[in-house]
Amino acid sequence: MRVNEYGQAVGETLPDFTAGKFPNIERIEGRYAVIERLSKKHSADLYEVYGPDSPADMWTYLFKGPVANQAEWEDLLDELMTAQGRFCYAIVDKATGKALGTFSLMRIDRANRVIEVGAVTYSPRLRQTRLATEAQYLLARYVFEELHYRRYEWKCDALNQASRRAAERLGFTYEGTFRQAVVYKGRTRDTDWLSMIDSDWPAAKKRLETWLKPENFDEKGRQKQALSDF
C-alpha cells in the first residue's frame, strides 16, 4: 500500500489520467445480436415491447409503465432519442433484423471514467437468451476497450433479484444496498449497487466469449454448459 509523506495510506497514482469521452457508437455487430443507436427505424418493433400489449409484470421494477397507444409511444421514443446525458440503444436480433429491447449508457461521469448500463427493457423473447447476453457483452467490451472507462455500474431495486442475478452472472460484483434511495411509482426503493472495473474485465470477457461460442449451443439454440460453469 502506498504511503504519503505524512505516513498516511493513499491510493495508486494515475499520472497520465484524463477524462473519458461520451459514447459515440452507432452500431456494433456480434454473432447473434446487433446494438444500434435508437432511432425511428426501430419504432414499429419496439412498440410491441413498450406498448399496451406488453406483459404487465415486466414493468414492476422499471420507472415507467407501458405506453397506452401509438401516439404516446412516439412521444416516448422522441424522449429516449434526445435525452441529455443518456445514450439509448436498440438490441436487434441479427437473424431477423427485429429490435427486441433497449438499454442505455447513462449517469456518465467523464471526470472519473465511470458509466452505468441501465433502463434495460427486454421483450419476453429476449429474456434469458444468448442474444441478450451477447448484447451485454458487446456493450461492456465497448465501455472498457474503446471508451477505456474504469468502472461500469449496474443498479436495481433491491427486491428485483432477477436483475441482480443477471448482473452477477455477467461478472458484476455486488457492492451494497443504498437504503431508501428512490421513491418511484408511489413506493419506496432500496437500490442494490453492482460494478465491474477494468481489472475485472479480462476474466469476464473470457468467460462470456467461451460461453457464447456456437459449439456451446445445440441446433435449437439451447446452451450445453451454463455461464457459471466456465
Automatic annotation (TrEMBL):
Domain N-acetyltransferase: 33-190
Gene3D superfamilies: 3.40.630.30
Name of the protein described by the UniProt record: GNAT family N-acetyltransferase
Superkingdom assignment: Bacteria
Annotated TM spans: none
Pfam families referenced in this protein's UniProt entry, alphabetically: Acetyltransf_3
